[in-house]
Structures are given as C-alpha cells and as structure tokens.
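Good morning,

Attaching, inline, the backbone tokens for the sequence recovery test we're adding to the shared suite. The designed sequence is right after.
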C-alpha cells in the first residue's frame, strides 16, 4: 500500500484547561529559524489581557517552554514541542484525578446541566460522556494559549521576510470603533495598551462601561475583530484546487477559534450591496512598486491567492456561553428542565480573541509561504524567495 506522507507545515495541540499543561507539536519548520523567546511569551501575555476576563487570567502567567526541536536558540528542522503550564492545575488535581462517585466531593463538581452555546451537550452525546466536564475541559478556549504559542513561531518566520501581522477590535456589543486609518506600526502602538484594543479613547470608555454593565447583569457580549497582514508577495495560495485557496484556509482557521461564527475579507458582506465598479480593486503599475492596486476592497485576495495588498480579515465572536444568570437547560440525569450550570467565566473575551485570530492567521500565511518557498533551512527558503521576487519583478 502506498503511504502518503504530509510534508506540509502542521501542528497539533493537546491538554485540558484544568490539567497540568497544554502541549503543541509543530512539524515541518525549516532549520536555522532563530526563536526569540521573549517575543513568543509576549504574544501569550497579550492574549491574557483585555477588559472583561474572569479570575482565571489573574491565576495564570502564561509562558511557553520549548522542549524539543530548538538548540542554541535556533530550530534544527526537528519537530518543535512547546508546553504552557496551567498554574490553576494545583487547585483542580482532585477534580481532574478522582472519579465523581455518588456521595464523594468530586460528584458535586460533575457537570450534568449543559450550557447553551457551549460544547457540553453535543460533546456529551457524541462521546457518550456522562460527566460533561470531560467535554468542557478540552472545548475550553484555554487551548488557544497553545495556538498563540504556535502562531508566535509562525510570526517569527514571517517577520524574517518582512511580513507583519497585527490586529485590533472593531466592535464590542454593537459599539463600533472608528476605522483607524493608520500605518500598521502606529495601529499596533495605539491599540496595544488599550484594555479593549481600540485606538480611540472615547470608544474605549464606552466599551469598558458596557462590559462592566453586562457583567453586573450576569450576561455576556461578543464583537468583531480585525487582522491585517502586510509585506506579502503576490501569489501565496492557489486558484487551482479548492483546498489550496488561502482565503478559504484562513476562513476555516478563524471560524475554528472558540466562539467565532463568521468571517469576511476586505469590505466583506458589504460587497453584496455594491456594483462591481465599487468593489474590484483597479490594477496599476509603476517602476518602483510593480503591479499594485488603487484600493484594497477585496482584502488582499483574488482567486485564493494574495495580490500583494495587505490581507484584511474580520471575524465575529458570539457572546460567551456561560452566563452567571444562566439560561434554560435540561438535566441529563433526570431530563427535567433546569437552568444551565455556572462555571467561572469571562463576560467578554473579544480583545483576547483578537490576539488568537492574529495567531491563527499568521499560521495559515506561514504555511502557504513554506508551500511556495519551502526548503529544509532558512537559507534555502531565502534563496527561493529572492529568486521568485526577481522573477515577479521581471513579469
Ligand atoms: C479567549 C476566549 C475566552 C473564552 N472564555 C470563555 C469563558 O470564560 N466562558 C465560556 O463559556 N466561553 C468562553 N469562550 C468561548 C467558548 O470556548 C466557546 O464558545 C465554546 O468552546 C463552544 O465553541 P463554539 O462557540 O465555537 O461553538 C472563550 C473563547 C475565547 C476565544
Ligand atoms: C483559561 C482560559 O479561558 C477560559 C476559557 C473558558 C471557556 O469555556 O472557553 C472558560 C474559563 O475557564 P475557567 O473556568 O478555568 O476560568 C476561561 O477562563 C484562557 O483563555 O486561558
């Protein structure tokens, strides 16, 4: 039998939210990529911030340890293994290790009243698990800490080729931030210190007040986040096969983030309301810039390929499912109506989610980059990249 070996860049994560740690393995990185550990941990730190998060974020101080594939600060070409420890584990060892049996303390922690909007009921039925904690533990967005660590490595690879990934919050609970028409460096600087990751102080104050009110009401809110990727060559992704279209792959990655329900590129759904003349980006040519566009309404993609303009992608996050004033549910033991179980929870995680979105987008772009310019070492990739840029400049 012929075995098909997947040589592309890939990763897997493992670990439970209240288990000892999260683990990620990245396969397919080239050798000689310098890893900046401080920059990696900075991304994890950014994901923990944001107004509206619950107490868990005060317990955790996320840092990644690299336990494979890196020596002397550089990748060796071997799989890179990363772990992020859960500080909270020490409070959960009994709950995680002792089976809940009628009458014991752990039985009180068994989850049997599924939360609408979370994975509890579907996961319980699918995997035939009578303690819905077995679903919650893995469906928790704690897993996104591992994805941010992985995305931070992808970012570092992209940065070596001048490709930068940034993000910010567009709206929270219906409050929309004015569009920041700023160069990417200024956008990062202006939104970085904001507890809701917006550039405008007035919007920031309104969003904070709404999050506080929502929390006081025992409710939750979602929002829209935007990610921008600059410095891209033309031609990442491909039109020739459905699963090689990079916009499609980014869409999948974005909607895979916990609580994300939709995605759009450039003007997105607004394209439905305009004639073509106000949607398509006219093609220009100059000696110094080569082919470029008069606008970027399509968010950097045509035919599933980058067109050299920045990728602009937005994702919508629904409100957090766990409500302190819980919704109607059913007890899976008795089938009687009950309100859903309440677990410690965030009221709004939109600012944190914007960092997760940057990370998954960085990953998809890095994967497409290596598909096009791939080699076993950074030096080989650099040579392939330079050669392509020369070829494209002569086109
Ligand atoms: C950064 C982040 C933090 C989250 N925090 C919570 C939380 O505290 N409580 C909760 O119920 N859901 C939280 N969620 C959302 C759930 O993880 C998510 O709704 C759940 O896994 C079900 O998946 P789905 O919403 O994608 O269908 C969070 C999501 C993200 C991205
Ligand atoms: C742990 C994180 O987010 C968690 C995501 C989450 C959920 O249901 O998705 C529920 C909460 O879990 P806990 O009950 O442990 O506080 C959040 O804190 C994190 O982002 O690192």
């Amino acid at each position: 039998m012929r075995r098909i070996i997947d040589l592309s860049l890939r990763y897997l994560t493992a670990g439970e939210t209240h288990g000892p740690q999260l683990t990620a393995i990245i396969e397919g990185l080239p050798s000689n990529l310098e890893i900046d550990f401080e920059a990696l941990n900075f991304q994890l730190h950014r994901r923990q911030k944001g107004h509206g998060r619950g107490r868990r974020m005060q317990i955790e101080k996320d840092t990644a340890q690299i336990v494979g594939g890196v020596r002397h600060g550089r990748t060796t070409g071997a799989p890179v293994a990363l772990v992020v420890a859960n500080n909270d584990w020490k409070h959960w060892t009994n709950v995680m290790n002792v089976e809940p049996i009628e009458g014991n303390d752990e039985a009180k922690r068994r989850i049997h009243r599924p939360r609408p909007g979370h994975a509890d009921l579907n996961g319980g039925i699918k995997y035939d698990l009578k303690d819905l904690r077995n679903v919650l533990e893995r469906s928790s967005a704690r897993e996104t800490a591992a994805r941010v660590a992985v995305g931070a490595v992808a970012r570092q690879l992209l940065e070596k080729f001048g490709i930068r990934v940034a993000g910010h919050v567009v709206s929270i609970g219906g409050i929309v931030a004015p569009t920041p028409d700023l160069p990417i460096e200024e956008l990062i600087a202006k939104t970085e210190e904001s507890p809701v990751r917006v550039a405008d102080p007035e919007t920031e104050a309104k969003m904070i007040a709404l999050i506080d009110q929502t929390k006081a009401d025992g409710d939750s809110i979602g929002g829209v986040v935007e990610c921008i990727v600059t410095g891209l060559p033309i031609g990442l992704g491909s039109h020739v096969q459905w699963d090689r279209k990079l916009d499609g792959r980014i869409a999948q990655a974005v909607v895979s983030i916990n609580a994300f329900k939709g995605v759009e590129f450039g003007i997105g759904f607004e394209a439905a309301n305009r004639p073509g003349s106000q949607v398509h980006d006219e093609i220009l040519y100059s000696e110094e810039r080569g082919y470029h566009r008069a606008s970027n309404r399509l968010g950097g993609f045509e035919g599933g390929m980058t067109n050299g303009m920045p990728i602009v992608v937005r994702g919508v996050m629904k409100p957090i499912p766990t409500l302190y004033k819980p919704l109607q549910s059913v007890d899976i033991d008795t089938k009687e109506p009950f309100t859903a179980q309440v677990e410690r929870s965030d009221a709004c995680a939109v600012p944190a989610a914007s960092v997760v979105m940057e990370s998954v987008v960085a990953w998809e772009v890095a994967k497409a980059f290596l598909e096009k310019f791939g080699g076993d070492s950074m030096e080989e990739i650099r040579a392939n990249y330079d050669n392509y840029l020369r070829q494209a400049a002569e086109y």
